[in-house]
Amino acid sequence: MRKMQVQGVHHITLTGADRQSSIDFWEGVLGMPFIFDQPNLDNADEGHLYFDPGDGRLITIFTNETRKPVHDRTPTDPGCVHHLAFNVSMATHRQVVARLDARGIAHSGVKDRGFMDSIYFKDPLGLLIELATYKFEPPRGTSHAEVMIEAHRIRVARGDNAIGEEHLADAIEMIVERSQQSLSEDRGAKNPY
To answer: Which parts of the sequence belong to the VOC domain (predicted)?
Structure first.
């Protein structure tokens, strides 16, 4: 038996309501360019809209003009999607609350998650959306995931409950020491004052 190694999310497809409300939310609220539109090749009664969430991958929406937006929370039963999280810059994240308030969209306010800050709100169909921003930049040539696994190991070794900024800073320092050479024999912390 062998694994089928994945290399990232190709796309996520959601069941939407009508075409225009889907465009209005995904492009008009979240700013995702509407990049193409075709019929749902498995159901001639539906459209299939494609949006770019900012990383070149795809969010796609099946639409049907007979479906209308509902505002109930989507199911959170086992096997159901709890929420979708999208990355935004810190500059954008700092504007999210005011911009949601200006539209009259209820939201959670900023939630400190230790390694990121998050804001939650529902789309017009009741799907929980998270806009998240990392509190750190990974060292050159590494990913957020690489920093996170190191921060996790540090957190566990220290017996801490959740990853915090100190774990992230220490993880980044460890990654830099491993990946970048120095002429110094002793790279430990010093006090030049």
So the answer is: 8-134
What Rg, from alpha-carbon coordinates, does the chain have?
A: 21
Kindly report the number of other CB atoms within 10 A of residue 49's CB atom: 24
Domains of the chain: 11-134 (3.10.180.10), 144-179 (no CATH)
Query: What's the pTM?
Result: 0.91
Model confidence pLDDT, tens digit, residues 8-24: 999 999 999 999 999 99
Q: Dump pLDDT digits (tens) for 17-60.
A: 999 999 999 999 999 999 999 999 999 999 999 999 999 999 99
Strand arrangement of the beta sheet that strand 43-51 belongs to: 11-15, 58-63, 43-51, 34-40
| Alpha-carbon distance values, 126 to 63, 116, 122, 176, 188 (Å) | 15, 24, 5, 42, 51
Distance CA 11, CA 87 (A): 15
CA distance 118 to 180: 32
Give Cα 37 distance to the centre of its chain: 24
Q: Which of 51, 28, 47, 26 is nearest to 38 (CA)?
A: 47
Contact in structure between 67 and 18 (CB atoms under 8 Å): yes
